[in-house]
Specification:
The protein has 268 residues and is α/β, with parallel strands linked by helices. The protein contains ten helices and ten strands.
Length: 268
């Protein structure tokens, strides 16, 4: 892939998703672009770029962003965030709150929202409340996996055995163990495609907590600031934003109060 085509492809990715790709990623972009080229039986990068640019339906762009975006996740990643979720949720219960809304932005293949659902169900102690978790991602491929809710044995390693038995069904496929999310978790979760670079984001509910972790590292300062302020708008007063431990919103113009690194609070 020559530099000119690489730059053009990176610009499309940036303009349409907010993902900023450095010049060091030529090999990665080339390899992932070739996946779509093979699928379409296109032989050179320029012809693929022309196809991508001229596809008025936008379908190829969605498929291209599927292969270009990085999706790394696992159950109960950065586990202290789930401890914090438990404390805040139970505090809300003690104060009489009976409706809770959460968002897992950039949820990938569903491990994060399902981890949230397990955490909340364990904290409920059988109380009857209205809880919903929205999981979104730009990639339709990983969203399909999230909706399917089936994971190979290695994927569920971080889950305690008692929780695994409680919330997953063991199945065998090609003589290999797979674990299917039970309906009690699926009832709490809803998945949809969303592009975090859009503004305003297409949500109309005020949220109790947003997990937006390990995605802003792919954005430049302009898109990070725009996203942070959108997340602030969508949280209700008293709501929390949780980011990845490698991310910080320090230096970004915003109204969040710092609870501790990677946890932020909307006071008003």
């Amino acid at each position: 892939m020559d530099k000119r085509i690489f730059d053009k492809i990176c610009k499309i990715v940036y303009d349409k998703s907010g993902i900023s790709i450095s010049d060091k990623k030529v090999a990665l972009v080339s390899a992932r672009t070739r996946k779509r080229m093979r699928k379409l039986e296109i032989e050179n990068y320029k012809d693929y770029f022309d196809h991508l640019e001229n596809d008025k339906s936008g379908k190829e762009l969605v498929k291209f962003l599927d292969v270009i975006s990085t999706n790394v996740t696992h159950f109960f990643r950065e586990s202290e965030h789930f401890d914090f979720l438990t404390r805040v949720f139970q505090d809300g219960l003690r104060k009489g709150q009976r409706k809770f809304r959460y968002w897992s932005a950039a949820c990938s293949s569903g491990e994060e929202p399902y981890s949230m659902a397990i955490t909340l169900l364990e904290a409920l102690n059988g109380e009857n409340v209205d809880v919903k978790i929205l999981g979104t991602d730009i990639s339709t491929q990983v969203l399909a996996k999230a909706i399917n809710g089936i994971y190979v044995e290695k994927k569920v390693d971080p889950i305690e055995n008692k929780l695994l038995k409680k919330y997953f069904l063991l199945e065998y496929k090609n003589n290999k163990k797979h674990y299917r999310v039970k309906q009690r978790l699926k009832k709490l979760t809803l998945f949809r495609r969303m592009n975090l670079s859009e503004s305003p984001l297409p949500l109309n509910r005020k949220l109790d907590m947003i997990f937006c972790r390990n995605v802003m590292i792919y954005f430049d300062q302009i898109h990070r600031e725009k996203l942070i302020n959108e997340l602030y708008r969508l949280l209700k007063p008293g709501g929390y934003l949780l980011t990845g431990h490698s991310e910080s919103i320090t230096g970004i113009n915003n109204d969040f109060k710092v609870v501790r690194p990677s946890i932020y609070y909307k006071k008003y």
